[in-house]
Amino acid sequence: MSKDGGRALIVIDVQNDFCPGGALEVADGDAVLPVANELLGDADRFDVRVLTQDWHPVDHMSFAVNNPGHEPYSVIEAPYGPQVLWPTHCVQGSPGAAFHPDMATDRADMIVRKGFRPSVDSYSAFFENDQVTPTGLDGYLRARGVESLVMVGLATDFCVRWSAVDGAKLGYDVTVAIDGCRAIDLDGSLDQAMTEMASAGVTVTG
Fold first, then answer.
1. Measured distance CA(10)–CA(88) in Å, rounded
2. Is the pTM of this model over 0.85?
3. Which one of 13, 17, 30, 138 is the catalytic residue?
4. Which of 85, 121, 127, 183 could be 190's S-S partner, Cβ–Cβ 3.0 to 4.6 Å?
5. Is 181 a catalytic residue?
């Protein structure tokens, strides 16, 4: 099974609400699709192919509408630290939560849904934002013999960043293919993300 110790592709949150016209649109977000689909189709390179999916209940604490007096993109102090308040997005079962229709979802081995607990957000593919509650992805990858990860998706400065840094902390060799990512860039968050990923030992290519 193993290729170079086992390699997994993680495609992060390529969902309608993060693409043009979506509730939390990432500029040029659908431009990640050609890269993501090419990698999803490369069965010789990857032993495991995983998709992550934001999957929020309508009463999720990270939605600005659920925090009276606060505007979207403002920051509150959650029990686990600073939390950006977002426009309502990726509500469970909604069209916006669905994967982009042009993504080759049939090539994936696993889908990881995150952010479904009302009281804690989840950027990372590995942990909720409390950095304690696991998504189960680490256990799955280790059971499959995976040692290295390639990541693409949305958004570079939030869910890709947190996933890459957590993956490196867990001991994986992590590469972010930056041509398959797009950013929100909220108050300098993209530069911060690139610095943090580099400090964590994440390789950025493309």
1. 24
2. yes
3. 13
4. 183
5. no
Read off φ and ψ for residue 180, nearest 5 degrees.
-105, 25
19 is catalytic: no
Token pair 């959650």: residue: 78
Q: Which has the closest alpha carbon to 12: 129, 100, 131, 80? A: 100
Task: Say if residues 125 and 176 touch (Cβ distance below 8 Å).
Answer: no
Asked if omega into 183 is within 30° of 0 (cis), the reply is no
Query: Looking at residue 206, what is its pLDDT?
Result: 85
Q: State what percent of residues in the chain have pLDDT above 90.
A: 96
Tell me the sheet residues that pair with 75.
84
DSSP classification of residue 124: S
Query: Which of the following is catalytic: 19, 30, 47, 114?
Result: 114
Q: In whole angstroms, what is the distance from residue 201 CA to residue 173 CA?
A: 8
**Does residue 59 carry a catalytic annotation?**
no
Active-site residue, from 47, 90, 121, 159: 159
Give yes or no for residue 5 having a pLDDT over 90.
no
- Local confidence band at 2 (pLDDT 50, 70, 90 cut-offs): very low
Chain Cα centroid distance, residue 3: 24
Q: How far apart are CA 111 and CA 183, in angstroms?
A: 22
